[in-house]
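Good day; I would like, with your permission, to put a structural problem before you. A protein sequence and the structure tokens that stand for its backbone fold form the material at issue. The record follows directly beneath this note:
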Amino acid sequence: MTAAKEFLWPVRVYYEDTDSGGVVYYANYLKFMERGRTEWLRCLGFEQDALREREGILFAVRRVALDFRQPARFNDLLTVRSRISQRRRASLLFHQEITREVDHQLLCDGEIQVACIDAVSFRPRPIAASLLEVIPDGF
């Protein structure tokens, strides 16, 4: 099984996600994107705790670059789109977008580099072969 080039994950904006202005607090977009990447991995049949226990690896965010375009508000239904734009031996570069479902407005997008690291030493380590077999090369 090979992963689709794009993975979609729905996210509902809760009151706790908003700031005093009634819009999603900027750091919460990172949480939404994290959920998208985690669910993508789960959809491929890989749980992060199992990768740690069986393969001895973890994934850690190494770099983030985001553009905030429009605000999301309480109760909005959002879609997190995740694509691999680059696959390397020990890292993945994701392009992620968050859109509002009702009008398909792009709210936030960015590049997130995720490094594969050893669960004990936290040093870079190659991505498990079983995972590489199902990850697309990028778009």
About this structure: The chain has a mean pLDDT of 94. Strands lie at 7-12, 57-68, 77-87, 91-100, 106-118.
